[in-house]
Design goal:
This protein is mainly alpha-helical and 670 residues long. It is 60% helix and 6% strand. It contains 23 helices and nine strands.
Length: 670
């Protein structure tokens, strides 16, 4: 406070001369250029004021050091150092070499005293408190946690460039949370000649940033803080100590804008590339932005397309100021302001009118001071809320979520339906020959039934015909090269079909992950199905039902009747037995007719058991092939779909919606 008193008199006396509204617009700047330092210091008034200001600065620094740290020997060297710095500042009129401004010995001495007070802040008594860190509310913390989880789950599925912005938002949110929550960092941005430096000086109440016709005028960002404790915030912006200022010491201004850190940025359309890079870098770090436009360039495409339109979601932490309205006659200012609002609406920037949240749009003249008070009042209310930093982080999260939407959300239902799973199992069963295996099993059962229950003469004839065929009863499903090649093609087609159906409706990265999982699982699937088919084949003769022995006994009886009747007739022919044709003929007829009847009855009775036996064989082979396909293909695909469901839920939390809200249709994994 002593430094404030020491510097108040010269700053107040010279403030009217250094206000932006009083600067001469003439191109001639012999007094403003840095090379005019020797000319300025040679003036009688500057030479006389400097010796008076230097002892005042020294006395202020010493008194403050003694008041803040009594009895502390460490404060004495600090004061000495500050005195030396003050002497250096007064002897060498302040000039950073980057910006041009009016420099006088009196201003240099006042700034030296303020710097001395700032340098002594770390050596204060231990009772001084550190700035209170920023605190995020519950919903914002939940969204940040969800975004962090989302990035972690997606690192192996998405490239680093896609997740770069989300990672930057998380890093900057964590960094901002550790810093002061009592300060609000506001950047003043604008195009060349828009008058943002004039506005910066008007808000500070003293000429801090150079104004004039030379372009670019502001070559490096300058920070002005209305209260202590903002050093870490300014360090985060990368602004060196020589470009940090304090405003005009006024109790009213301090009370109104306490906690404000104002940053004057270079021109965003500067011809110097490094200037534009500094603007883009700092705009990502500040809590709010004041966009300064003028009647000539308020509709500039660079401003709207490169900055306002992409930052439309940051409307609540944005001020749009139409400067230089003093140049507009009559009602032209209102017309230009209405047209500016129309352009902002087309950009998607919500306007904070009628009590609704959004950007604050004002018209003013930094040169004449008209409307600057309204901006100062709006800034005071904005800073007093202490919610700009959290709103900025929330807007950054919204922007990052919007950029990630194409890789997490679609308007279609995605997933693996039960119908697709059944179709895949059916294709594998066809490839392994399950239907043919069931039919072969049914034929084998019928063949065994015919052999067991047929007449001896028919069995003898069939034995004669099938002497060269193996009588193992094993079903050979696929034993030819062309059949194996066809089966392999069917397996590949089944895998392609199920992967296409599972990935349909998914964002491109996750669809690619699903297809890759299906392809990995299909490797060796054909060989595994061959092994399953071999194991599922019938291990020998089909089982015999309980009525087969009865049928065999009846068939044997029919055969015995034929033999007895035939021998009887032979005996009668040779004269061994008495002639009696009726009985032997009847026996033979019963045996000859009864044998085929028994065989036919057995065949009819064997159809249902044979069909069930074939169906059971087909079912076993289908289940085996489906189990193999599920383990190798469907389960990996389902795992990818479950991972996508999880990240989609996290994305829903990031955008502030429930599960599936704002992320398209749901995901089915069967």
């Amino acid at each position: 406070m002593v430094g404030k008193d020491a510097s108040k008199t010269p700053l107040t006396e010279r403030a009217p001369k250094s206000r932006p509204g009083q600067d001469s617009p003439k191109p001639r700047r012999s007094e403003d250029a840095p090379n005019s330092r020797s000319a300025d210091t040679s003036k009688p008034r500057s030479v006389e004021e400097a010796p008076r200001a230097r002892p005042a600065a020294k006395e202020a620094a010493k008194k403050r050091s003694a008041d803040d740290a009594p009895g502390d020997s460490a404060a004495i060297p600090t004061a000495t150092t500050v005195d030396a710095d003050a002497d250096a500042e007064s002897e060498e009129a302040w000039d950073d070499g980057l910006i041009a401004r009016r420099v006088t010995e009196a201003n240099a001495a006042a700034l030296a005293a303020e710097r001395a007070a700032a340098l002594e802040t770390p050596s204060r008594a231990p009772g001084s408190q550190a700035p209170t860190p920023l605190a995020y509310d519950g919903p914002l913390r939940s969204r940040l946690d969800a975004l962090r989880e989302l990035v972690g789950l997606s690192r192996t599925r998405l490239d680093s460039r896609t997740l770069a912005e989300a990672g930057r938002v998380l890093d900057e949110a964590a960094a901002r949370r550790k810093l002061s929550g009592r300060h609000t960092v506001v950047a003043i941005a604008g195009a060349t000649g828009s008058g943002k430096s004039q506005l910066f000086n008007a808000l500070a109440g003293v000429a801090i940033s150079e104004t004039g016709v030379r372009r670019p005028t502001t070559a490096a960002p300058i920070a002005c803080s209305w209260s202590d404790g903002a050093a870490a915030l300014i360090d985060r912006l990368g602004i060196p100590g020589r470009l940090r200022r304090r405003p005009l010491q006024s109790p009213e201004a301090e009370a109104q804008l306490r906690g404000l850190v104002l940053v004057d940025l270079p021109d965003h359309d500067s011809a110097a590339v490094q200037h534009r890079e500094q603007v883009d870098r700092i705009l990502k770090l500040v809590d709010a932005v004041i966009w300064v436009v003028d009647p000539e360039k308020y509709a500039d495409a660079v401003l709207h397309e490169r900055y306002l339109r992409p930052m439309a979601g940051h409307a609540e932490v944005m001020f749009v100021v139409l400067n230089q309205v003093d140049r507009l006659p009559g009602e032209a200012a209102d017309q230009v302001l209405d047209d500016l609002r129309r352009l902002l609406d087309e950009d998607g920037v919500a306007l904070g009118e009628y009590g609704e949240p959004g950007a604050t749009v004002l018209a003013l003249s930094a040169l004449t001071g008209d409307g600057v008070g309204d901006l100062r009042e709006a800034l005071g209310e904005f800073v007093a809320e202490r919610g700009a930093a959290a709103r900025r982080v929330a807007a950054d999260v919204d922007l990052a979520a919007a950029e990630l939407r194409p890789v997490y959300a679609t308007g279609q239902r995605a997933g693996l339906s039960e119908e697709a799973r059944e179709e895949f199992a059916a294709r594998l069963a066809d490839a392994v020959g399950a239907t043919a295996a069931g039919e072969a099993a049914e034929r084998a059962w019928l063949r065994n039934a015919n052999r067991a229950c047929g007449t001896p003469w028919l069995r003898l004839w069939r034995w004669y015909q099938g002497r060269g065929e193996p009588n193992t009863g094993r079903i050979q499903v696929r034993n030819q090269a062309d059949e194996e090649a066809t089966a392999r093609q069917r397996v590949e087609q089944a895998v392609r079909t199920v992967s296409d159906r599972a990935s349909a409706g998914l964002p491109v990265p996750w669809a690619q992950a699903v297809r890759e999982a299906a392809v990995r699982g299909s490797q060796g699937l054909s060989e595994a199905l061959d092994e399953l088919a071999a194991k599922a084949a019938l291990p020998g003769r089909p089982p015999r039902p309980g009525w087969w022995p009865v049928a065999v006994l009846v068939q044997a009886s029919m055969t015995l009747l034929q033999i007895v009747g035939g021998l009887w007739l032979v005996g009668q022919i040779v004269g061994v037995m008495a002639p009696n044709l009726g009985v032997p003929v009847l026996l033979m007829v019963c045996g000859i007719v009864g044998g085929p009847l028994v065989e036919w009855a057995c065949r009819m009775a064997a159809r249902a058991p044979a069909r069930r036996y074939g169906q059971d064989a087909e079912r076993r082979l289908r289940e085996a092939s489906a189990s193999c396909g599920r383990a190798r293909v469907l389960d990996p695909v389902a795992s990818e779909l479950l991972r996508y469901r999880e990240v989609r839920e996290q994305y829903g939390r990031v955008v502030g919606a429930g599960t599936g809200a704002g992320t398209g249709a749901g995901v089915g994994v069967g």
